[in-house]
């Protein structure tokens, strides 16, 4: 019985660690779905802990599987006849393992939740096209990039947006007769990430 509780606790620890590992990437998608952008970067402070949380999740879930699969001792034989509780089943461990794997991989596949809102812009005068590089504070993953791109593409006159969390910037090409640098900065700031300076 002690082994089963240890397995359950390890599985829950692994699940919690896996969710926490992606907690910086999940709010932008929830913010998009809920229509509230300002809270998107609320958990971005957790991003530096991501590798450790992934490691903790892998160790905890690995231990849960080990505790579940290890051979039973001879004195545990009388407990075999009892029907296991739902959290003591192989299905429970498979479910926890799959959910943890999905949580950990979420930052790499979060772009599927963002609808393509890029518009075709007809350029009347090429001299009206301007490219501005915004330094953006708070982006930590691909999900953050998609959130910024989505918010900027909501504006009229946007030709192209390229956001990079690694470079901490967003490069925006736009028609300055239809939108302005200030409007773009407001759109980026509305996501919860902040423009720190313009180049």
Automatic annotation (TrEMBL):
Name of one Pfam family that matches: HMA
Gene Ontology terms for molecular function: mercury ion transmembrane transporter activity; metal ion binding
Domain HMA, residue spans: 130-196
Alphabetic keyword roster: Cell inner membrane, Cell membrane, Membrane, Mercuric resistance, Mercury, Metal-binding, Transmembrane, Transmembrane helix, Transport
Its membrane topology: Multi-pass membrane protein
SUPFAM superfamilies attached to this UniProt entry: HMA, heavy metal-associated domain
PROSITE patterns: HMA_1 (PS01047), HMA_2 (PS50846), PROKAR_LIPOPROTEIN (PS51257)
Family: Belongs to the MerT family.
PANTHER family xref list: P-TYPE CATION-TRANSPORTING ATPASE
Protein name as it appears in the record: Mercuric transport protein MerT
Organism field: Aquaticitalea lipolytica
């Amino acid at each position: 019985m002690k082994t089963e509780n240890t397995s359950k606790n390890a599985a829950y620890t692994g699940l919690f660690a896996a969710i926490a590992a992606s907690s910086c990437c999940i709010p932008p998608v929830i913010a998009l779905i809920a229509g509230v952008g300002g809270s998107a970067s609320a958990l971005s402070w957790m991003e530096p802990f991501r590798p450790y949380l992934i490691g903790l999740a892998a160790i905890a879930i690995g231990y849960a599987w080990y505790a579940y699969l290890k051979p039973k001792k001879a004195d545990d034989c009388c407990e075999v006849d009892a029907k296991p509780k739902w959290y003591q089943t192989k299905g429970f461990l498979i479910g926890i393992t799959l959910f943890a794997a999905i949580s950990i991989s979420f930052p790499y596949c979060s772009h599927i939740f963002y609808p393509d809102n890029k518009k075709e812009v007809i350029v009347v005068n090429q001299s009206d096209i301007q490219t501005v590089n915004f330094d953006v504070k708070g982006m930590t993953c691909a999900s953050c990039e998609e959130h910024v791109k989505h918010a900027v593409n909501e504006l009229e006159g946007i030709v192209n947006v390229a956001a990079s969390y690694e470079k901490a910037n967003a490069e925006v090409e736009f028609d300055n007769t239809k939108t302005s640098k200030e409007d773009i900065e407001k759109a980026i700031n509305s996501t919860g990430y902040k423009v720190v300076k313009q180049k």
